[in-house]
């Protein structure tokens, strides 16, 4: 499937859609949900953050490699620039993250070996698994299991028997598959177990779990890290703010926060409206005060929207997606055909009076809801 980005301008989108449908393709026409801005002026990290918060939303945060490419595309020079990541020093500030963007870590004691995680003589920030999990030094070498969302060779998981460091394993998986195996749903799946049991005796393997004390300026828990391992050595220096090295394909490094550098801000196009309205009221509200009710046409957008949905006061938020009885078709209100779907099982009802909402907890899947229900909703700004 192809992805094309266009401006949010309605006429352009309709015209583009018309052309693409003529070509008979199912295409995502993406109206960007956030924008990066490169600011050439040199500032300390704190000054840069204040600037971004005043003019835009915050210093740039990066969800995945797609974001990283967009960030680089918005740069106007090949230099080193601040991003919104900083280190909270002090041992108790480390947090576990799954390597795969969008997977949320929830504590589950039963997965760990007795007495783990426990650090050692040095901090142990990466996780290996045999039957149960143990934290281990990230520079140790083990085989590993990659997750492949495209199901290369009809397999979701690929066992790589070469022993490498955790970061090398992550790089390999991101290059050849999707990422290191991440999340309980993957690691406790039948297919994963079968792969693990095919090794006799059982071996220790890296899984996609790591911890660090780096945080995003706006408080989100995005787990994506893109360190330049030749320059960066977490634990050996005291440089607490992160930069992107635009001349080194955007890889990240750390620097003293009071150094002066250009920087990236991000501007969020989504606003959560914490008012309870019916779908029609929500649509009118968004069209009058902003641009439109948000619709989702790819997994990347789904992830940005779900971050926002978490902060709603209702169990669902309305999405700009409805069913047309006349056309017998689901469509997005921005006139796109629905090419990406994220229905909860049993959540899809093809009834004339149903509209679509996302659950604000759990997996953030979609469910049909009656039009007289009232929920919070998310508008997209101009
Ligand atoms: C914890 O993980 C085990 C698998 O080891 C799983 O069966 C159980 O449902 C999980 N518990 C929670 C609360 O997620
Ligand atoms: C993948 O699996 C499907 C059915 O599960 C089968 O029809 C197809 O031939 C398989 N493809 C390959 C490349 O093995
Ligand atoms: C990030 O994770 C922490 C702890 O796991 C949690 O308390 C916090 O609410 C999360 N923040 C967001 C924005 O989801
Ligand atoms: C980040 O903070 C941790 C302590 O939480 C520390 O061990 C590590 O050295 C710091 N990293 C850098 C690059 O300063
Ligand atoms: C919206 O409804 C939720 C319950 O579904 C309630 O907790 C919340 O206070 C309501 N918000 C407003 C602004 O009425
Ligand atoms: C919506 O209408 C249905 C009947 O069509 C009714 O059962 C339901 O209670 C109504 N819900 C609200 C929130 O008014």
From TrEMBL:
Keyword rRNA-binding assigned: no
Highest taxon of source: Eukaryota
Keyword Transferase: no
Keywords: Disulfide bond
Domain C-type lectin, chain residue ranges per copy: 36-147, 152-266, 265-380
InterPro entries linked: C-type_lectin-like (IPR001304), C-type_lectin-like/link_sf (IPR016186), C-type_lectin_CS (IPR018378), CTDL_fold (IPR016187)
Signal sequence range: none
Protein name: C-type lectin domain-containing protein
UniProt organism field: Oreochromis aureus (Israeli tilapia)
């Amino acid at each position: 499937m192809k992805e094309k980005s266009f401006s949010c301008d309605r006429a352009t989108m309709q015209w583009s859609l018309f052309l693409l449908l003529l070509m008979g393709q199912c295409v995502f026409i993406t109206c960007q949900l956030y924008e990066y801005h490169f600011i050439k002026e040199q500032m300390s990290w704190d000054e840069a953050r204040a600037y971004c918060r005043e003019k835009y939303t915050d210093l740039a945060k990066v969800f995945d490699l797609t974001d990283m490419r967009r960030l680089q595309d918005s740069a106007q020079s090949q230099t080193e620039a601040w991003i919104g990541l900083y280190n909270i020093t002090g041992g108790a500030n480390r947090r576990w993250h799954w390597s795969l963007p969008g997977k949320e870590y929830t504590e589950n004691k039963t997965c760990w070996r007795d007495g783990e995680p426990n650090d050692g003589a040095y901090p142990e920030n990466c996780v290996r698994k045999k039957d149960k999990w143990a934290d281990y030094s990230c520079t140790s070498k083990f085989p590993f299991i990659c997750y492949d969302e495209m199901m290369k060779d009809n397999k979701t998981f690929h066992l790589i028997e070469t022993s490498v460091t955790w970061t090398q394993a992550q790089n390999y998986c991101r290059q050849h598959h999707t990422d290191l195996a991440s999340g309980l749903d993957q690691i406790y799946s039948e297919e994963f177990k079968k792969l693990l049991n095919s090794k006799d005796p059982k071996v220790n393997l890296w899984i996609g779990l790591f911890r660090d004390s780096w945080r995003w300026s706006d408080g989100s828990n995005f787990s994506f890290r893109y360190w330049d391992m030749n320059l960066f050595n977490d634990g050996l220096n005291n440089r607490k703010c992160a930069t992107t090295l635009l001349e080194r394909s955007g890889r990240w490094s750390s620097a003293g926060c009071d150094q002066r550098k250009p920087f990236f801000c991000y501007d969020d196009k989504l606003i959560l409206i914490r008012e309870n309205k019916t779908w029609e009221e929500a649509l009118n509200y968004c069209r009058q005060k902003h641009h439109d009710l948000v619709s989702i046409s790819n997994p990347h957008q789904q992830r940005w929207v779900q971050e926002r949905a978490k902060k709603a006061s209702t169990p669902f938020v309305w999405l700009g997606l409805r069913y047309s009885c006349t056309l017998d078709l689901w469509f997005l209100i921005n006139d796109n055909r629905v090419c990406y779907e994220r229905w909860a099982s049993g959540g899809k009802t093809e009834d004339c009076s149903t509209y679509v909402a996302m659950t604000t907890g759990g997996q953030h899947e979609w469910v049909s809801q009656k039009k007289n229900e009232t929920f919070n909703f998310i508008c997209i700004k101009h």
